[in-house]
Design brief:
The chain is mostly beta strands. Helices cover about 5% and strands about 45% of the residues. It starts with 14 loop residues before the first helix and ends with a strand.
Length: about 270
């Protein structure tokens, strides 16, 4: 049979099955719990000390039970992260089912990331997820850190990916999103979409954060001129998971010809 139920008599529930269930119960969100010091970070030279705490990462409960140290790379900037790495093998000793049985867990560790974080979907074939807990900047001999708020059920603000061809005006624009308690908050300002496909594409969001269902959703936004403080109304379309992958604007072309200052705040549930 190709259908099964893991919580059934005499069946075996693997760690992967367990993690998939827990991740689904918390809307596939990741973050720290209000436990211990919530991974408070102190630095001495280039050595960071990470305090106790717990986090849920892709449905897996990770805990630091005593302070851990991590040497940061010199003359760099990046992120201190908890890595859940399914490519690693755990160490096993003793006999299963007896008091001598022990597992040395190698599939979770702390890492200093100087590039882009890897955040695979571990419940759909991925292998590595890096949960940020602090950012750092270092010199040859010392470093400073800033805690990244990644409280469970709250991703904190994440930079959104601009649609191809879309830019900020003079570097003053931005696009960011946050998922908190099952609600997505998207905030964008002064984005020039004239060179994007159809001249109206604003940003793209991860698939899991687009609206569910078969219909797109529609929200008011504005096209602003930051130099003159003049703004005109427009509408932002959030494409659903079954429709597309971009957020784009529509407007009365009699008011303005091009979407050169897309600005808005959009909030909607993701489940």
């Amino acid at each position: 049979m190709s259908i099964t139920m893991y919580q059934s008599d005499r069946n075996t529930v693997s760690p992967a099955n367990d993690a998939s269930l827990y991740s689904g119960l918390v809307n596939d969100s990741n973050g720290t719990l209000n436990r211990g010091t919530q991974f408070a970070v102190t630095v001495n030279g280039l050595v960071a000390t990470i305090g106790t705490g717990q986090a849920v990462v892709q449905g897996r409960l990770v805990e630091i039970t005593a302070s851990e140290t991590l040497t940061l790379p010199a003359n760099s900037s990046g992120t201190i992260a908890i890595a859940v790495d399914l490519t690693k093998n755990n160490d096993v000793s003793g006999t299963a089912g007896t008091p001598t049985y022990q597992v040395g867990v190698n599939q979770v560790y702390l890492v200093a990331v100087t590039g882009t974080l890897t955040q695979d979907d571990l419940n759909n074939g991925g292998f590595l997820y890096e949960l940020p807990i602090a950012s750092f900047t270092s010199t040859t001999t010392s470093a400073t850190t800033t805690v990244i708020k990644s409280v469970f059920n709250d991703t904190g603000w994440i930079t959104a990916t601009l649609a191809t061809g879309t830019t900020t005006n003079g570097g003053t624009g931005f696009a960011q999103y946050r998922v908190k308690n099952g609600m997505l908050i998207l905030n964008f300002y002064n984005l020039n979409c004239k060179a994007s496909t159809n001249g109206n594409q604003i940003v793209t969001l991860p698939f899991a954060y687009r609206p569910t269902g078969t219909h797109s959703q529609f929200f008011p936004m504005n096209n602003i001129n930051a130099n003159t403080n003049v703004s005109y109304p427009a509408m932002a379309t959030i494409q659903s998971q079954t429709v597309g992958s971009v957020i784009y604007g529509t407007w009365n072309t009699g008011d303005f010809a091009s979407l050169t200052g897309a600005t808005g705040t959009i909030i909607y549930p993701i489940n």
